Amino acid sequence: MHNVNTDALRATIAAAQADPAAALQQVSLGGEFQTEPGAPQFRTQIPLPDGSSVTFEADFPGPMGGSGAAPNPLAYCFWGGLACYAMSYAQEAALQGVELRGMRARVSAQVDRRRALGLGDHPVVDHIDWQLEVDADAPHEKLEELKAAADANCPGAWCIRNPVDLRTSLAPAGARA
Questions:
Q1: Phi/psi of residue 28, each to 5°?
Q2: What is the pTM of this model?
Q3: Which end of the chain has fewer CB atoms at under 10 Å, N or C?
Q4: Is 99 within the bounds of a domain?
């Protein structure tokens, strides 16, 4: 339904209900900083389930020391969260039999770059706004119910709303484990 494979989704739900380990997905990504002037500063290949991959590149804008040759890293964070939320909404709609004719999503936030510039411990983002515009033959109350389900179940929303333990490490080049 509207580009959501509900059979696969329901099978995954059933498998996770039978064995919680079936819901676990390991994510491991890497990338390399590019030292050539004018190149996007960071590049990686993101693997796809079919074995192919797509290239992601990121670059800080000029005022932050980059060349602006690629989206800045926060653009990926904001877009990834928005994509997760919109896709979660579409999943909830499909599972509840609400056909979406279309949906547009938008994210907005104001970023305070003082922390990144070493000018104090100011919050980087005060809040993030995710807006959905949904085209469906369903009463507004039902669309709001789907929004509440997406709010509760979206992994991206959960990661933004809850502290996640971040562990960083450093190793000299060539000392990879």
A1: -145, 115
A2: 0.89
A3: C
A4: yes
- Out of 71, 89, 119, a domain closes at 71
pLDDT digits (tens, 9 = 90+) for 36-87: 998 999 999 999 999 999 999 999 999 999 999 999 999 999 999 999 999 9
Cβ–Cβ under 8 Å, residues 58 and 40: yes
Whole-Å CA distances, 119 to 62, 63, 113, 122: 18, 15, 9, 8
Is the sign of the CA dihedral 172, 173, 174, 177 positive or negative?
positive
The CA distance from 114 to 127, in Å, is 16
Q: What is the DSSP letter of 124?
A: S
In the listed set 28, 52, 71, which residue is the last one of a domain according to the structure? 71
Q: Are 105 and 82 a contacting pair, CB within 8 Å?
A: yes
Residue 173, token pair as written in the block: 């080049």
